[in-house]
Write a structure and sequence with these properties.
Number of strands: 0
Distance between the termini: 8 Å
Number of domains: 1
Largest sheet: none
Helix content: over 70%
Shape: globular
Low-confidence stretches: none
Radius of gyration: 16 Å
Structural class: mainly alpha
Order of helices and strands: HHHHHH
Mean pLDDT: 95
Strand content: under 5%
């Protein structure tokens, strides 16, 4: 039961994040005022004044949404024509990816490549810790399923 609740929580959080990326791909500017302030808030790369291309952002939105679906597939046994071993390996890979993304804001190399404010502060306070929580949730789904 714990794994099902966590799988739904992961799906909900990643669906919201995916929807934000889709919104940006279609030209949305929140939480910025313009493209420059948006890129400094959500990307923070040195010298970046514009958002990544819309197509790339849309692909990221799709990947994040699928990452949210995977725990539901894992706990439900819904036949998706994917071998169970492949789903398990993808869950482990996603846990690792989220843990790595969660640790990055605290490394000097990443901070030197993404120093723009307010991204740098938001990354350390919110984005990174959220990724660590998501990574932990993947591990708990794996452990309790």
């Amino acid at each position: 039961m714990v794994s099902v609740a966590l799988a739904w929580a992961i799906f909900f959080v990643l669906s919201v994040i995916s929807a934000l990326h889709a919104y940006w791909a279609w030209g949305g500017l929140w939480p910025g005022r313009d493209e420059t302030s948006l890129s400094k808030t959500v990307v923070g790369a040195r010298g970046l004044e514009t958002m990544p291309p819309a197509g790339l952002t849309a692909v990221v939105a799709i990947l994040i949404f699928n990452a949210g679906l995977l725990p539901l597939i894992f706990v439900s046994g819904v036949p998706w024509n994917l071998p169970a071993k492949l789903v398990w390996m993808a869950m482990v890979a996603l846990a690792t990816i989220f843990f790595a993304r969660g640790i990055l804001p605290f490394t000097p190399i990443f901070r030197s490549r993404h120093p723009q404010e307010p991204f740098a502060t938001l990354d350390r306070r919110f984005y990174g810790p959220l990724c660590l929580l998501i990574g932990a949730a993947y591990v708990l789904v794996l452990a309790f399923a």
